[in-house]
Design a protein that fits this description.
The protein is α/β, with parallel strands linked by helices. The chain has two domains: 100 residues, Enolase-like, N-terminal domain (Enolase-like, domain 1), CATH 3.30.390.10; 229 residues, Enolase-like C-terminal domain (TIM Barrel). 39% of the residues lie in helices and 20% in strands. The protein is built from twelve helices and 14 strands. A seven-stranded parallel beta sheet has the order 5-6-7-8-9-10-11. Strands 1-2-3 form a three-stranded antiparallel beta sheet, with helices on both faces. A hairpin with a 2-residue loop joins strand 13 and strand 14. It is globular. The mean pLDDT is 95. Bound molecules: magnesium ion. The site of magnesium ion (MG) has 6 residues, from loops. Magnesium ion binds next to loops. It catalyses: (1R,6R)-6-hydroxy-2-succinyl-cyclohexa-2,4-diene-1-carboxylate = 2-succinylbenzoate + H2O. Belongs to the mandelate racemase/muconate lactonizing enzyme family. MenC type 1 subfamily. Keywords: Lyase, Magnesium, Menaquinone biosynthesis, Metal-binding.
Length: 348
């Protein structure tokens, strides 16, 4: 990261927007984000509402990286992207998949499982329906750490039975790093060689190394904002020696550009990325949202460098957040900035 701009510079030309979502996600029906405009382009600061200053500081570092340092040069200009299936009843699966365009082009589907209030039968029915409708797509299940150890053993084995070789991996079947390591060891002992991905267990830069050291997962799901920017995230992936799936945190199309920049930067990209989340938003801040076409996203490149798309003033106005809620975002940015400034000061 270049030197940290002061708060007033970060807030100059910024906007806060609230975008309606098509389906409830993380218990929310709208996604709020702060858009920042720096010399290198537009950036997004959008830590989830419950995140405090320490956690939000990494998200601000990532926004400064995008808007003030720049998103860097791409190694590839097209990134394969998975479709995402929320925890809907099997009967709604076809309707959700329609948003992703031509079925044959979808490289993989991430299927939400272990939703509170639902059963493993619901998960299996949903996965079966996706498998039936998309006979060529890779399948992955995401439990968001929602199972106990015993539930996870049973669920992973049942999903593996249903999906067979098409099951690419199961994402965060249990919470934490150590429990993942214990689960993965037991699955291997039982002869269930399903790949395990760590997602929620990877939130700080040191986490991927611990995941790798403990043998907790076969691959890691990485998001740019919690790792503090594209450069930092790319370094973390390299250091871990694990395959990575670049994912987004329900970003606007401005924030998605940073995820695409990371996916475009990695040497090896064996799995489709989780960057298709703009399809879950009912509105965006740009005229042409970064929604996958034919199962892939084009990396937005200008003069050989990745640059976020420019927000459309009309759309920003339409979804603008003002008043007390805007003040709340300014305050979040200030407190995250104070954390970053403290770190910078301590380091110099
Ligand atoms: Mg996940």
């Amino acid at each position: 990261m270049t030197s940290l701009p002061d708060v007033e510079e970060l807030l100059r030309g910024s906007a806060v927007v609230s975008l309606p979502m098509r389906t409830r996600f993380r218990g929310q029906t709208a996604r709020e984000a702060m858009l920042l405009h720096g010399p290198a382009g537009w950036a997004e600061f959008a830590p989830f509402p419950e995140y405090g200053p320490q956690e939000s500081a990494a998200w601000l570092a990532a926004a400064v990286d995008a808007g003030w340092t720049g998103l860097g040069e791409p190694r590839r200009t097209t990134v394969p992207v998975n479709a995402t299936m929320p925890a809907v009843p099997a009967a709604q699966v076809a309707q959700v998949l329609k948003r992703y365009g031509r079925a044959e082009a979808i490289p993989a589907v991430k299927i939400k499982v272990a939703e509170p209030g639902q059963s493993l039968d619901d998960d299996v029915a949903r996965l079966r329906e996706v498998a039936r409708l998309l006979p060529q797509a890779g399948l992955r299940a995401d439990a968001n750490g929602g199972w106990t150890h015993a539930e996870a053993v049973r669920a992973v084995e049942e999903l593996a039975d249903v999906a067979g070789d098409r099951l690419e991996y199961v994402e965060q079947p249990v919470a934490g790093v150590e429990p993942l390591a214990v689960l993965r060891e037991e699955l291997h002992r039982r002869g269930t060689l399903v790949r395990i991905a760590a997602d929620e267990a990877v939130r700080k830069a040191e986490d991927p190394l611990r995941v790798a050291r403990l043998g907790a997962a076969d691959l890691i799901v990485v998001k740019v904002p919690p790792l503090g920017g594209v450069d930092r995230a790319a370094q973390v992936v390299r250091d871990s020696g694990l395959d990575a799936v670049v994912s987004s945190a329900l970003d606007t199309s401005v924030g998605l550009a940073a995820g695409l920049a990371l996916a475009a930067r990695l040497e090896s990209l064996p799995y489709a990325c989780g960057l298709g989340t703009a399809a879950l938003l009912a509105a965006d801040v740009v005229e042409s949202p970064l929604i996958p076409v034919e199962g892939a996203l084009q990396v937005p490149v200008r003069k050989g460098r990745v640059v976020a798309p420019e927000p459309t003033p009309r759309l920003v106005d339409e979804h603008r957040v003002a008043g007390a809620r805007r003040d709340w975002w300014d305050e979040r940015l200030r407190s995250a900035h104070a954390v970053l400034a403290g770190r910078t000061g301590a380091a110099s």
